Amino acid sequence: MGGQMGPEESFDLFKQCAVEVLQVEPSKIVPEARFADDLDADSLDLVELVMALEEKFGIDVAEAELEGVQTVGQAYELVASKL
Amino acid sequence: MLAVMGAPDGSGAVQGRRVVITGLGVVSSCGIGVGAFWEGLHHLPPPGRSRPVEGLDVSALFGPKEVRRADRFVQMATAAAEQAVQDAGGPDVVAEGPDRAGAHVGTGVGGLDTICEQDRVLIERGAGRVSPFLVPMIMCNRAAAEVSMRYGLRGPCETTVTACAAGTQSIANAARLIATGRCDLMLAGSSEAPLSDLGVAGFANMTALSRSGTSMPFDTARDGFVIGEGAGMLVLEERERALARGARIYAEIAGAASTADAHHITAPAPDGGGAARCMELALADARLSPSDVAHINTHGTSTPPGDAAEAEAIRKVFGPSGPPVTSVKGVLGHTLAAAGSIEAVAVALTIANRSIPPTMGTTEVDPAFELDVVIGEARPWEPGPVVSNSFGFGGHNGSLVIVPA
Questions:
Q1: Chain A nearest CA to B391, separation (Å)
Q2: What is the CATH number of the domain that holds A22?
Q3: Inside any domain, residue B109
Q4: Over the stretch B272-295, which tens digit does the pLDDT of each residue have?
Q5: Annotation says B334 is catalytic
Q6: What is the structure's pLDDT at B377?
Q7: Which one of B12, B156, B232, B246 has the fewest CB atoms closer than 10 angstroms to its CB?
């Protein structure tokens, strides 16, 4: 499904997932937002978010790929690279 | 044996340390909060196979993200704990001396609702979609951990898992930590949320549940228990500390005991021997005789063999003209591991209100039991020592002796 999606549309989908899983205001989901400091999300929150993203975008993200992912922008780039 | 007051001859007790109840909290099908609960104990609910808790709102306790990650048994335990903490004077009172304050919260099955939901996820969507929060949601110690974290209690944080005896034994285990000098305050209780289709089917298929959907403990026509859910929590405190801060003292935990039937995994020993020994040891722990006991809050689940065995045990200990007894399970059904702590709350309120709530649902007490079961309406009562019993699958017996302060 992801192949036909524009960047704006795919970021919107990403944002939907993040809002639902992390229960934060949509306005907080910006590329520079840090999961731990700005979104009160720990490593298990991130795992749950990635599960939702995998399902929404029809992609697979290996556990190792999450290492070093600290911001919304980094997570989105990881997803976008697989679309 | 480990006891609240030391061995029957007094050895092993830490002199001067007594355990009192200074806070109560309850989430039950007949009311959330002690006021509604006490009132609810006097009204018979409509028949039905289960007695769910309705109207539980935990939005003030959990954020929108956290609430999805708290199984129902944790939500109920937390709601009851918050009531108990507020009743005792608030979080600052409870967390004073946090290294000598702990949590002991029992359960029977832990996060069964979550197990059922996530098993469906596993089957329908695959292993990769199972929640990373599964383990901390289902583990039986989660409710204890939750309240420990919430109030900053850094002493022992533990969980007793002894089926339907867990509530009573949790309070006993917590009381011992105070009586023996390790702690000055414990948040103690239990919680159970067994009403998933899987849980109900399990109990129904072992023919434990009432076919008529009526809980009628000790009645000639009793035909099994009605399954319930809920949580009870108590703030237990070392008496001198409670007195020094001018706390409201509901009652004292004067004694406790545990025994095992060592007989059968689900059936009680028919002669009630294990239950009788348990009550005798609890009374010895409290330095009381059977003739001192003014009331028994029974396990009384409404099953034919269970009630018969408990009646036999009571007759063994107290003789044919023992103290008045009641079972709040006529109203609540059997809340399994939650029962013991909910009933401890009921006993504290029985003492405070000087009145024994009736065994609702029961109209004709089995004459073979020779028990003075309070039925019909509440009985005005001069407070005295109360024995509270709980018995669990596995042959676990637990008794508390709760006395007016």
A1: 39
A2: 1.10.1200.10
A3: yes
A4: 999 999 999 999 999 999 999 999
A5: yes
A6: 96
A7: B246
Domain holding A11, by residue range, is 2-80
Q: How many CB pairs lie under 8 A apart between chains A and B? A: 20
Nearest by CB: B131 against A22, A48, A54: A48
- State whether A47 and B63 contact (CB < 8 Å): no
Residues A23, B131: C-beta atoms closer than 8 Å: no
Indicate the residue of B65, B125, B132 with minimum beta-carbon distance to A23.
Answer: B65
Total structural domains within chain A? 1
Judge whether B14 lies within some domain. no
Of the listed B164, B278, B295, B396, which one is catalytic?
A: B164
Q: Return the axis-axis angle of helices B72-88 and B112-125, rounded to nearest 10°.
A: 150
Closest CB to B63 among A23, A47, A48: A23
> Closest approach of chain A CAs to the CA of B67, in angstroms?
11
| Chain B residues within an 8 Å CB radius of A54 | 128
pLDDT higher than threshold 60 for residue B2 = no
Closest approach of A73 to chain B, Cα-based (Å): 22
Number of domains in chain B: 1
**What is the complex's ipTM, to 2 decimals?**
0.86
Tens of pLDDT, residues B85-138: 999 999 999 999 999 999 999 999 999 999 999 999 999 999 999 999 999 999
Quick one: tokens of A57?
A: 């975008």
Question: What is the average pLDDT score of chain B?
Answer: 96
For B273, the domain range is 20-404
Q: What are the CA-CA distances from residue B311 to residues A73, B204, B316, B375 (Å)? A: 68, 24, 9, 16
A12 is catalytic: no
Q: Any idea what the CATH number is for the domain that residue B158 is in?
A: 3.40.47.10
pLDDT one-digit tens code per residue, B373-405: 999 999 999 999 999 999 999 999 999 999 999
What's the rounded mean pLDDT across residues B225-248? 98
Which pLDDT score is estimated for A2? 45
For residue B344, pLDDT over 90 is answered with yes
Give mean pLDDT, residues A20-33: 96
- B1 — pLDDT class (breaks 50, 70, 90): very low
